[in-house]
């Protein structure tokens, strides 16, 4: 599923070289951490979150068909974004 998710997201974004997917097991739930260029986050989320919801649905179905944990999640990890507290302190 990791390769599928990475391939799909790379097709959606402008900077595919910045896309990385990390699979993490968290108490029986598989979390796919998606890291990408900050300018591409909106493309992956989509209008009203439709694109990310579709990705989550496809990963959930794929995990179930593969016989793996049906509990899974796809999360976008934003590392380069400044913390909200820091932004408020600057103003």
Number of helices: 4
| Structural class by helix and strand composition | alpha+beta
Overall geometry comes to globular
* Gyration radius from CA atoms, angstroms: 14 Å
Low-confidence stretches: 84-91
Mean pLDDT across the residues is 85
Question: What does this 3D model show about the protein?
Answer:
It is built from four helices and three strands, in the order H-E-E-H-H-E-H. The chain has helices spanning 2-12, 41-45, 50-65, 84-90, and strands spanning 20-26, 29-35, 72-76. It has a three-stranded mixed β-sheet. The longest helix is centred in the middle third of the chain and has 16 residues, at 50-65. It starts with a helix and ends with a helix.
Helix and strand arrangement:
Blueprint: H1 2-12, E1 20-26, E2 29-35, H2 41-45, H3 50-65, E3 72-76, H4 84-90
Parallel strand pairs: 2-3
Antiparallel strand pairs: 1-2
Quick summary of this structure?
The chain has 91 residues and is α+β, with helices and mostly antiparallel strands. Helices cover 43% and strands 21% of the residues. The chain has helices at residues 2-12, 41-45, 50-65, 84-90, and strands spanning 20-26, 29-35, 72-76.
